[in-house]
Write a structure and sequence with these properties.
Blueprint: E1 2-3, E2 9-11, H1 13-21, E3 25-28, H2 31-36, H3 41-55, E4 59-66, E5 69-72, H4 76-83, E6 93-94, H5 96-104, E7 110-111, H6 113-122, E8 127-129, H7 140-143, H8 148-155, E9 159-162, H9 171-180, E10 185-188, E11 207-209, H10 212-224, E12 231-234, H11 245-261, H12 269-281, H13 283-313
Parallel strand pairs: 2-5, 3-4, 3-8, 6-7, 8-9, 9-12, 10-11, 10-12
Antiparallel strand pairs: 1-2, 4-5
Helix pairs in contact: 3-4, 3-13, 6-8, 10-13, 11-12, 12-13
The structure holds pseudouridine-5'-monophosphate and manganese (II) ion.
Length: 315
Amino acid sequence: MTQGHVPWLIFSDEVAAARAAGKPIVALESTIIAHGMPYPTNVRTAREVEDIIRREGAVPATIAIIGGRIRVGLSEEELEFLGRPEHRADIPKVSRRDLAYVLAQGCNGATTVAATMICARLAGIQVFVTGGIGGVHRGAERTMDISADLTELAQTDVAVVCAGAKAILDLGLTLEYLETHGVPVVGYRTSEFPAFYCRRSGFATNFSLNTPEELALFVHTKWGLGLRGGVVIANPVPEADAMDPEEVESVIARALEEAEARDIRGKDVTPFLLDRVKALTGGRSLETNVALVKNNAKLGAQLAVALAAASRESV
Ligand code: PSU
Ligand code: MN
C-alpha cells in the first residue's frame, strides 16, 4: 500500500504500480457492493467487473473508506468485508456531505457516485464505471430530493459510464438538471437515454458517439477547454439482458407507494426503493443489474485506454 499526496488517500500495490507506469485506471464505487446488491452476488460481481477491466488493458480501482482512509484499489478480502451483510450497518453510504465526517472519525464507508468521483479526482483517475447514477426523484417539487451525484457531475472532472438512471427517478427532470449545469449526456451507440433495466426511456441524450476513441476525444476536448465537471456516458443494457418496461414501471409504482406510506426520507430513499424493486422483480432484476455493470466495465476500460492514448497525442 502507498500513501497518496493527500494523507487520507491510500493506493493498493496494483493501482500504485499502474500510476507509476502511466497505465489507464478505472474507478469503481462501493455503495453498489455494500448496499446495492445482495451477498454473495455483490462480491462476485465486484471481482468479475475488476477482471473485465484488466482484460481490456486497464487497471481497476475500487474505492471505499476503510478505517478513516480513502482506499483506492481493494484486495479480495476487503471486497468480501464490504459485501458481507453483517457489516452493512457499519459501512454507511457516504456521499459528498459525509466524506469528511467518516474520515475524521476513522470510520468505514461505501462511496456513492458523488463521493467516488471526488476520490477518483483526488487520485487522478478520469474514468469511473457504475450501474446507474442518482438523479432528481419523482415528486422532487415537493421533497426537493435531488441526488448529490448531479451537483458532483456539475463540478468534478470525471467521466461516468453508466446504464442511465433507474426509472424510480424522474428522468426528464434529471436530464433538465444536468442541462442547467452544463453536464453533457452522451449516448453510446444510442440517441435515447437508457433507463437502467431497460434500453429506452423516451428521453433523448444530447449526443450519440459510437467508439471509445470518439468518447475519449470528446472528454479530452471538454477538459482541454477548461470546461470543468463530469460527463455522463450512457451505455444501454445489452438487449438480451434488458427487462420489460411495463413490468419495471408497475414494480416501481408499487415501491414508490410503499416509500410514501412508510415516510422514507433523505439518504434512505434510494436504498429503500432499490431494495423493494429487487424484491418485487425477484432474481431477474439482479441478473440485469449484474449484466449492465459488466457491460459498462468493458466500455469504461476501453475509454480509459483510448483516453490515455488521446492525452499522449494531445491536440
Ligand atoms: N442507482 C442505482 N444503484 C445504486 C445507486 C443508485 O441504480 O446503487 C446508488 C449509487 O451509489 C448512487 C446513490 O450514487 O445510490 C445515489 O443515492 P442518493 O439518491 O441518495 O444520492
Ligand atoms: Mn436523495
